[in-house]
Inverse folding.
């Protein structure tokens, strides 16, 4: 969980739902849903602008999200069928699954190239004061991965 901005009114949860704090009063319902990861989410980080955040998934991807693209309800059949047994704690992600995409993926962009194995790797936006949060970075089971793609150039 992390806050979307300094106001504390929006909260990003790892289940990829966006909750407005005012929604917690009298209702147990998310303000919106974003669908896209195929496996569990290990970490989320907000850009702090109330619009963009990134999430790291166990399927070895980082996704960039724009909450303005969220749905009020998830697609009727948003669960992806799994025909495999896999556990990040002791198994490498199956190579044949690395290029799968969720059929209802709402992310702005997907980044690949790092490995989540035996650990719950985090992902972050680069510091505002030195890079203007133009980059994202993460760890990997073997090395530090930096996605040097300028996020400003990404079509938001």
């Amino acid at each position: 969980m992390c806050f979307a901005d300094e106001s504390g009114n929006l909260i990003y949860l790892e289940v990829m739902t966006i909750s407005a704090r005012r929604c917690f009063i009298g209702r147990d319902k998310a303000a919106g849903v974003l669908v896209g990861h195929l496996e569990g989410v290990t970490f989320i980080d907000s850009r702090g602008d109330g619009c963009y955040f990134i999430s790291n998934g166990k399927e070895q991807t980082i996704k960039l999200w724009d909450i303005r693209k969220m749905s009020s309800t998830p697609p009727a059949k948003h669960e992806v069928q799994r025909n495999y047994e896999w556990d990040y704690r002791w198994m490498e992600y199956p190579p044949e699954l690395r290029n799968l995409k969720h059929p209802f993926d709402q992310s702005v962009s997907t980044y690949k190239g790092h490995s989540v194995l035996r650990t719950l790797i985090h992902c972050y936006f680069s510091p505002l004061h030195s890079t203007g949060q133009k980059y994202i970075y993460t760890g990997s089971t073997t090395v530090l991965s930096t996605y040097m793609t300028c996020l400003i150039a990404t079509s938001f």
